[in-house]
Write a structure and sequence with these properties.
- Helix 1 packs parallel to helix 2 and helix 6 packs across helix 7 (148-154).
- The strands form three sheets. A nine-stranded mixed beta sheet has the order 3-4-2-5-10-1-13-12-11, sandwiched between helices.
- It has four domains: 2-74 and 185-224 and 362-427, Rossmann fold, CATH 3.40.50; 82-173, no CATH class; 230-358; 434-642, Rossmann fold.
- It has 643 residues and is of the alpha/beta class.
- It is globular, with a radius of gyration of 26 Å.
- The chain is built from 25 helices and 20 strands.
Length: 643
Amino acid sequence: MAEAIEKAVKEREHLLVQAGTGTGKSLAYLTPALLVDGPVVVSTATLALQHQLIERDLPRLADAVEPVLGRRPTFAVLKGRHHYLCLAKLDHADEEAPTDTLFDDAPPRATQWLGEAGRLGKQILRVQDWAEKTKTGDRDELDPGVDETAWRQVSMPARDCVGAARCPYGADCFAEASRVRAREADIVVTNHSLLAVDMLAERHIVPPHKLLIVDEAHELADRVSSASQAELTPEAVERAARRSRTLLPQDVAESLASAADSLTVGLADIPAGRLTTGLPPHLHEAVMLIEAATRKGLETIGDIKADDPDPVRKQQAKATLDDISTTAQRLLEENDHDVAWIEKNDLGSGRRALVVAPLSVAGTLASRLYEDRTVVATSATLTLGGRFDTVARALGLPAGTPAQVPSPRGLTPDAPPVAGDGWTSMDVGSPFDYPKQGILYVASHLPRPAASGLPDKAGEELLQLVEALGGRTLGLFSSRKAATQAAELVRSRTDLPVLLQGEETLPILVRKFKEQKESCLFGVMSLWQGVDVPGDACQLVVIDRLPFPRPDEPLAAARAAAVDATGGSGFASVSVPIAAIRLAQGVGRLIRSTGDKGVVAVLDSRLETARGYGAFLRKSLPPFWYTTRQEVAIGALQRLAKS
């Protein structure tokens, strides 16, 4: 892999590399990165990998190569502005009050927060103390941390930032300092979300570079899609009216508040889901009112001048109004490139939102990801159905055709190398002996899953498997309802400790799962990737059903419908690849080291019985020893329990 990356840089050719768990892929891409002239950018999807690179891999690599290079390579983390403490925002923290009248009398700030906001105020005061000591202002260094509500009061999103030149705290800005460090480093570690924003902002955020390494690349398209997504909510419009009321005439401020009320009414009676025929009349009228009110507000505020007495507050108001105005205009255009839908949370907050997102981001990636740099995209799950083509298309690359590219020394690729227009690919294999270390058991005798939740027969199957091993089970479920039902079943029929996602924070649950050998950990999609539990604490992974996107997932449904409209199969082109990536990620939780052994049990008979996509999904998984016989899986688990 290291040699292939070096070759790709020299020949200015993009490279896709599938590298399974345990291959050492981070060192494989970091080592040739040190030979590149100028900074190299590494983008990750998860905080866990970012932490691993900065705290473990890069320091070890720097120590190892310093005698060879004659100097110690440098590295830096680049995060979004909202990850850093903003001194200007901290100075006005009391003005982001939960209500409009809380601070009208403007008593001393400490008294305000402690007297009126209690716990929130104490957190703000702790941040103020920390601000006098920290050198980076990075939220991750604040220990103990503060919750999201508190951090929003002291951090500045990029769209609200007035810029260092016009900010009274610009010379001491932590976010600006992080960018200076990034420009001077040999290797810059960032994340997919910031990389996506950088692409959408014409690449003005991340330092110029010749090599971009995208780890966990199967996540990139979704992050770009999320960055391109926008929404309108009554709360956001009301907040914009509050932020800008001192800058606007009364009639303009009132029109904003009235527009928020219209949006509330417009969203009230429309069911959640995709809007397939444009905005309904009442909603269309509400969005028009919002667009007109925000446009008038922006015209009234005008430009921010050098002698403005409070440029920070003015920029925040402008940015908020501009975001809402742009989103409203986008929704009113109703073009074929966007998908609009309504989200509703009828529990808790009762939140309503009108959302718009691009139908596809492949064009964005094709035009903005690859220009003027070499891109290396790597992940443990880049081949679907044994080929790179599907992921390549999602990343904006033209579909490739098989080509004979030399295999890496000592490893047999699991998929044929592929070359396309300006890109190549390779599968470096795995250090794991999957057929000997693991069994993939598909419960083909179970009925095809229908209703949501955990069917009775699937529950009984789960119970038999868990009891055969005596716990040590990671349960990955398609819905919170199914996970809860499974937890209740195992708790009622066994004495095994069951950890259920949502009952405690995820890091605490994973730690307990590692420490309590007989425990079970049950949860939903966030457990399907990123959970790393090597050893005998996790020897059974149970998946209740194939993770196809739900029919009510607006983007997936719209993308499938678009393919159907051109005569193709939306299910095969959209739903099956999504399921393949999710399933491969979930199955990958079992074997995390060369000594691991265990069983993956899929309680969805379609993985065996479905013609076409069943085989495609199995080809997307590691080559476990495969069986549909329950007694084989039970016997293997019983032997593991005794070992």
